[in-house]
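Many introductory courses stop at the sequence. We go one step further.
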Amino acid sequence: MDKFLRQSRLLIENLKHVTSSGAKRVTLSVVEVRHAAMSWFDYAHHDITRRTLGVMLLLGLLLQSVLPGSLPIFSVEKAEAAAGIYKPISYQGKVVDSNGQAVTDGDYNMRFTIFSAATSGTQLWSETWNSSSQRVTMTGGLFSLYLGTYVTMTGSVDFNSDSLFLQVEYDPGNDDAYEESFTPRRRFASVPYAHNADKVDGLDASQFVRSDADDLLSGSLLIADDGKTSGTAEAGLALEVAGTTSGAIIKAQNQLIASGSLVVQSTVQLRNYASCSIVTTDSNGNLGCGSADMLSQAEADARYVQLQGDTMTGGLLINLGGAASASIDSSLALEVVGTMSGRVLHAQDLLTSSGGLVVESTSTFNGAAIFGSTLRINGVTYTFPTSDGSASGKVLKTNSAGQLSWSSDIDTDTNTTYSAGQGLTLGGTVFRLSDSFSGTSLEIIGTASGRILHA
C-alpha cells in the first residue's frame, strides 16, 4: 500500500504546473479540458509515465473490488443522439500554494482567455468570473466550471483552427488585480475520434454542397427519381427550385415544369422546332409545329399579316406614335400615325395625307398632281383662284401677297426685241436716221407718205 501511495504522490507532483508572481507562489494543477468527448489524459504532464498511469488504474480496480456497493469505473452505455449540443467547454483544475497546500476554500475571481498563439498572438475570446454570482468556487483547491457560460464562443473562436491556446489568470484578493497568470498557455487538443469530426461517412466537409452560401460543383449533381426535398416539393419532382435561379443552365432530360410563371429575359431556342414556320399550341397548351397556312385557318388570328404578302378586306393602321385613341377609318386602305421614312410607299390609286407631305429629295410625278387652293414654293405661299379663266388668253397675276387671279394680257408683244442698224438710232419706240450715211443705202419697201425725204 505504501508503494501505491508513493506512486500517487508522484502522479500529483507530475501534474503540477508552477508559476510565481511576487513573493507569493500559487500552483495550478494541469486541468481537464473537455470538448465533446475529450479525454482527461490528453492534458497530462509530459513526464507522466505509463507505469504511473498503470498504478493509478490498478489502484482504482482494487478499490472497486474491496468496496461493497461501489459503482463500476468502466461501463459501456448505449449512445443516444442528442437534439443539440451544450457548447460551453468543461474545465477543471486545482490551485495550490508554493508548499503544495490547497488554497483556502471560497469563491475567487478568475479570468480565462483564448489566444491564437502560445505567446502574444490575437485574443479571440475572454471570460471573467468576478461577481458575487459568478465567481469560481474552490474546495480543497479544486474547481470545475464551463468556459463560455457567460460569454459565448460562437462567432469569435474558430474551432477549425489548430492554434487555440488557453490562458488562465487567478485573483486571490478578489480585487480584479489577477496577480497570478499561469504559464505556459495550454493548447486545445482533441480526443481520437475528433479527428474525424469534420467528415461524414469518411468524406471531408468540403466535398458537400453548402446550403447557407453560394457553392460551386465540380461534378454533376444527380437526383434520383425518388429523391425528395424539403418544403413543398412533390414526390414526382426530382428537383424543385424555390425562389429565383439565374446565371446557370438547368437541363431537364425529359420534361421541365413550372407551377408558376416562367420568365425568360433573353433569347429562347426551341431546337426541336428549327424547321417550323409556325409554332402553335394544342388544347392542352403544348407547343407543336403548325402548317404553312395555319393563319388562314379558323383558329388563327385574322389580324396577322404574312410577310410574303397578303390580301386584306379592312384597313390597316400603323400606329408609330402609340396613340391609344387612333382608329382605322373604313375608307382608308392604309393609315400611318406618326413618321414613316426610309422606305418606298406605293399607292396603287390614291395617296392622301391629312397633314403635311414633306419630300426631301427629287420627286417624279408621272401623272397629274392634285393640290388644294394653296401651293408653297421656296417659302412663298400662293393662293390659286377657285376656277379657270373666263376667256382665252388670261394670265395669272399676283398682288404681291401671294394671291393669284386671272387677268388680261395687256402687253401683246413683250417677247420681240428690236435693235437699230447702220444709219439708224433707237430711242424708246422711235427709230431715227443718222445725219450722214456712208457705204449704205436706203430702200423703202412699200409706200411712204406724209413725210419729207430729202436727198
